[in-house]
Automatic annotation (TrEMBL):
SUPFAM superfamilies: (Trans)glycosidases (SSF51445). GO terms for cellular component: cytosol. GO terms for molecular function: 6-phospho-beta-glucosidase activity. Belongs to the glycosyl hydrolase 1 family. Keywords: Glycosidase, Hydrolase. Its EC number is 3.2.1.86. The lineage of its organism: Bacteria, Bacillati, Bacillota, Clostridia, Lachnospirales. It comes from Blautia luti. It holds the Pfam family Glyco_hydro_1. InterPro entries: GH, GH_1_N_CS, Glyco_hydro_1. PANTHER family: 6-PHOSPHO-BETA-GLUCOSIDASE, GLYCOSYL HYDROLASE. The keyword Acetylation does not apply. The gene is bglA. Residues 24-59 are annotated as: Disordered. This is 6-phospho-beta-glucosidase BglA.
Length: 475
């Protein structure tokens, strides 16, 4: 008989990072520039700026060094092992493997770095979970082809994916095709997700066409992977947008439902069901979106459905048809403030109960295994005189969310893993700051460029170690 009071013994506990925010070594060993490498640093009063076709000498580009996993990978993986990680989610920098993105043959020096990382993880029995494309298109593909608005990107992506699948067959089981693909429902996604640099492409027509190309590429990659190794497990990854109705007026109830269908289900349905929903067809028609869909695309999408579903979940907000109310920040979106919730230092509302709601919503719709591959608190951490970081606020955030994960499992949700974001400090994608820290490991790097990259275990490091040791019993 199933014990609903305990997490599954084979639950995949771990942490997550992305190459563009963590790796550094941006121009070493043959790596080419990516979109992230021409994004300047930002702050609360200074937005990140895109400066193609190359970095400007007077600007600061935090992603160039990030928090330097490229030179600290052994040390960091040992720290992950000390915490007891069962899984580590990371991305492979496309431009480290194919510097321009459209070459015929890969950069062997770039691949050797990931050989070392994967072998080191396996030494500690940590399962790699690899994101193939995580907000880091090679810059050349944007400048030469216009990013993912071009269908040519599909072949470039598949060449990259095939190299990874063949090289790491037998070493890597879990793969994610694209990070937060559904961010293309928002202006934010034009550059970050699709690498489209033309301001005219910050429009629904271009964004949804780019998303269609990525969905086709994902489906083809899934089919290819299963042919190369039937043991491979391929997943999708969505930034899950949880928008509650701001009032109980029926118009707000319907608007909240449609908000979820747009921002979550259009991409999710194609990934899992293999086709666009009737809602998507109506939305495209009413918004003048005319997708170029080849006849073979329908069969490709139907064949290449994913094996599991993964999400990032940080916060929730409210939505209303009137748009009236105090605004709040969030992961790629600004909606209405919920008066019942507290917020982080950056205004992201903290809603652990919402995670249970979301997990039930996803599982009821798709009935496939789920992983939470991003969840964490961006905060200002203070280093004490004795070299400690007492981040009780982060512990409380994670504790409350893990409690709701357990409730969701009790509800019947097939939740198989949790990788907190990011297990070490890294560059914030939205603001380009080091100050906005997520890690359980402190990295001495600052927004003024100073810092020696030394690593310090935060209080949350020791707390999470106990959580993993007890499989979620000791919170």
């Amino acid at each position: 008989m199933k014990n609903y009071n305990r997490m599954p013994e084979n639950f995949l506990w771990g942490g997550a990072t992305a190459a563009n925010q963590y790796e550094g070594g941006w121009d070493e060993d043959g790596r080419g520039p990516s979109i992230a490498d021409v994004l300047t640093g930002g702050s609360v009063d200074k937005e990140r700026r895109l400066t193609p076709p190359a970095p400007l000498p007077e600007e600061f580009y935090p992603n160039h060094q990030a928090t330097d996993f490229y030179h600290h990978w052994k040390e960091d993986i040992a720290l992950f092992a000390e915490m007891g990680f069962k899984v580590y989610r990371f991305s492979i920098s496309w431009s480290r493997v194919f510097p321009n993105g459209d070459e015929e043959t890969p950069n062997e020096e770039g691949l050797k770095f990931y050989d070392n990382v994967i072998d080191e993880l396996r030494k500690y029995n940590i399962e790699p979970l690899i994101t193939i494309s995580h907000y880091e298109n090679p810059l050349h593909l944007s400048l030469e082809y216009g990013g993912w608005k071009s269908r040519k990107m599909i072949d470039f992506y598949l060449r990259f994916a095939k190299v990874l699948f063949e090289r790491y067959k037998g070493k890597v089981k879990y793969w994610l095709t694209f990070n937060e693909i559904n961010m293309l429902t928002q202006d934010f996604g034009a550059v970050f997700c699709a690498g489209m640099l033309d301001p005219k492409d910050v429009c629904e027509q271009s964004r949804y066409q780019a998303m269609h190309h990525q969905l086709v590429a994902s489906a083809l990659a899934v089919s290819m992977a299963h042919e190369i190794d039937p043991e491979f497990m391929l997943g999708c990854m969505l930034a899950y947008h949880n928008g509650y109705p701001y009032t109980c007026h029926p118009d707000d109830i319907l608007y909240a439902q449609q908000f979820g269908q747009i921002h979550n289900s259009i991409a999710g349905d194609v990934h899992v069901r293999g086709y666009y929903s009737g809602f998507a067809a109506r939305y495209f028609e009413e918004h003048g979106i005319q997708l170029e869909v080849l006849q073979e695309d329908k069969e490709i999408l139907k064949k290449g459905t994913v094996d599991f579903f993964t999400i990032s979940y940080y916060s929730s907000s409210c939505v209303s048809v009137t748009k009236d109310g105090e605004k709040t920040a969030g992961n790629g979106s600004d909606n209405l403030k919920n008066p019942y919730l507290k917020a982080s230092d950056w205004g992201w509302q903290i809603d652990a109960t919402g995670l249970r709601y979301v997990l039930n919503q996803i599982y009821d719709r798709y009935q496939i295994p789920i992983m939470i591959v991003e969840n964490g608190l961006g905060a200002v951490d203070q280093l004490t005189e004795d070299g400690k970081i007492h981040d009780d606020y982060r512990i409380e955030y994670m504790r409350r969310h893990i409690e709701q994960m357990k409730e969701a499992i009790h509800d019947g949700v097939d939740l198989i893993g949790y990788t907190c974001w990011g297990c070490t400090d890294l560059v914030s994608a939205s603001t380009g700051e080091f100050k906005k820290r997520y890690g359980l490991i402190y990295v001495n790097k600052n927004d003024d460029g100073t810092g020696d990259f030394s690593r310090i275990r935060k209080d949350s490091f020791y707390w999470y170690k106990k959580v993993i040791e007890s499989c979620g019993e000791e919170l």
